[in-house]
Amino acid sequence: MVSDFFQAYRTRHQLAEGWKQAGRKVFGYFCNYTPEELIYSAGIIPVRIRGSAENVDLADAHLPSFCCSYMRSALDQALKGRYSYLDGMVFPKTCDMTRALYGIWKRNIKLPYYWFLPVPGKSTDEAVEFFTHELRLFKESLEEYSNHKISDESLMQAIKVYNRNRSLVGEVYKLALSDTPQFSASEVFGILLAGLVMPKEEHNAMLRDLLDKLPASNTSAEDKVRLMIAGNTFENIELLQTIEECGGEVVIDDLDIGTRYYGSTVDESLEPLRAIAERYLRKIPCPCKHPAAPRLGHMLELAKTYRVKGVVLVIQKYCDTHLYDRPWIESRLKEEGFPVLSVEHSDTGWTGGKFKTMVQAFIEMLE
Amino acid sequence: MIVAGIDVGSRAAKAVVISNGSILSSVICDTGPESVKTSRAAMAEVLKGPGLSLDDIQYVVATGYGRVLVPFADENISEISCHARGINWYFPSVRTILDMGGQDCKAISCDGNGLVTNFIMNDKCAGGTGRFLEMIAEVLNTSLEEIGELSLSSRNAIPFNTICAVFAQSEAIAHFRKGVTKSDILAGLHEAIATRSLNLLKRVSIERDFSITGGIAKNSGMVAKLKEKVGLDPLLCEDPQIVGALGAALFAEERCNTSVQGMKIHYGYADGTGDYFITIDSGQCDGCGDCARVCPAAVLIVAREDGRHPKAELKEEARKNLAFLCPGFYSCSDTHKINCHSVCPKDAISHSW
Questions:
Q1: Rounded to two decimals, what is the model's pTM?
Q2: Does the predicted interface ipTM exceed a cut of 0.90?
Q3: Which of B66-70, B272-276, B328-332 has the lowest mean pLDDT?
Q4: What share of chain B is helix, strand, coil (3-state, %, to 5)?
Q5: Would an 8 Å CB–CB cutoff place A65 in contact with chain B?
Q6: Given 3.40.190.80, 3.60.150.10, 3.40.50.360, 3.40.50.11890, which CATH number is that of A22-150?
Q7: What residues in B contact A354, CB-CB < 8 Å?
Q8: Does the beta carbon of B258 lie under 8 angstroms from any beta carbon of chain A?
């Protein structure tokens, strides 16, 4: 059932404790630029570090209030011991916050394994060359940690599991091409979130099961205003529920945990490390990478394919990489005929009333 | 037809009753801690003037922060849409609105029909809103009504570094202790708020004409400062504070009109040979009867139902065998240049074949 996904996400810490008791190792990681296939092929379960709506208090001693609320909350959760089951942490070089947090985390939370992965800012051939080399170093360190050689076969196996996951989530997205999709945006959100914190083969099995037993189409979605949600990430499902209450139907996303994570597969015909390097550097870029044009192209294509009438841009407060891109992305979307509602968001300081007023006015404007 | 709009804001509740596009009465009262009670009280008050009861009101639209809590409302619409709609009733030429309310501030762009084309809301904090001015008035021991005029009498406005409500308050106290006059402090604060509002406006683009709504629009000092900053003379309506409630009432009226008149009535039938329908848009048809007069097959008639406006319709006896009487618009218009479509001044009639 679709609600099982959100349930799995909500109980993610308990699930992880369970794997630990079964003798598995669990690594935390930030950002969709971490090549999880490598961690997975070493027999370790990678889980995405997420924030929470819980008040931030312990992290205030380490991060000033102008750091993005997601990172402050993530560190706070770790300091409160919510991630006590982790055996290691992987930080890719993406935004300045992620980079800085590597040092702060390492200093304050003792773990057997830490890795900082330099991810180039561009996607040229030279960058792919560089990144392939970095992946080799990462692989060697994982081998050393796990005391176990990662063969090309096991790497290939990991690539296949991850590609399968991407194509199954892709099938879920395609359901929303219809005027009466089976799942609401908040349900799809649960599916996306569960995939961040579950072993991919389990997520795949749940997805296959869900797609085999699809519920009936939701005919009430027909009169709703089709929207795209874009931005980085957020925890608060109320955000999507408010859009639904106001007569909107989010049918597609351009989110850090959505199409930018689940899109683009690894080429299975190439040498594995090289293929992984290609995929991560040439996937739909996040704003921490350059240039921004491919992302805009991706957004426009989705907006047209999924027939949306407008875009809700939700950006974490103080996320400078997203805020830099915002004026350009916003004006280009408007030029192409997609009105944009820009919202600054913070999971720990959610102001539902104001958000509702803005969303309702936006939908009234589009109707 | 009598309808009402109610705007339960963060500081004040406003209600307006209108009848056929003109205002019968309006009221403004403080929003108490309980929005439900406040909305009932405001409604009771606004009905008192014209001597009406809630039963006389055909439709109520609620807006403002408390819009979902109005128990007698038929619908709720965001205050952003309502302000655009309300100002359009006063001044159809307005394209840019600055709504300065109790706890937030919005810049709105709208078109000639009063439809929102773009908008932006202030950040979370209350700096530059009505509540902020209330606080400052309290600190300076002045009434909210006076501060605008006082700020205008200043000769030497004190520049303020911040308009964070908390910091500005302590800064104002510090100036006051040093002996700076109230008017100079107020002029500085008004200047700071106007600058902040200008930045909000720039993000939606400033186009003529410009208007200010909400409670702060009653502050002459603020209006003067905004006029200077924006470079446009704002069009101000009689009571800028009720614009949201008025917009809500206008939406209520529109809802009644569309549900009663916006119906397209299809006469005819479909059989194995095709669809044979004549459609009358009863929202458009004014019952002039020209179509009935020119129809060569004489299948149309203008009916006068009791108490309703006359509308064109298909004669009862033609409804079951329409295809045999009317050749359809395409064939008919070949031979009859003057036909039911060509004579209709409202384009209210159409054929399916």
A1: 0.82
A2: no
A3: B272-276
A4: 40, 20, 35
A5: no
A6: 3.40.50.11890
A7: 104, 121, 124
A8: no
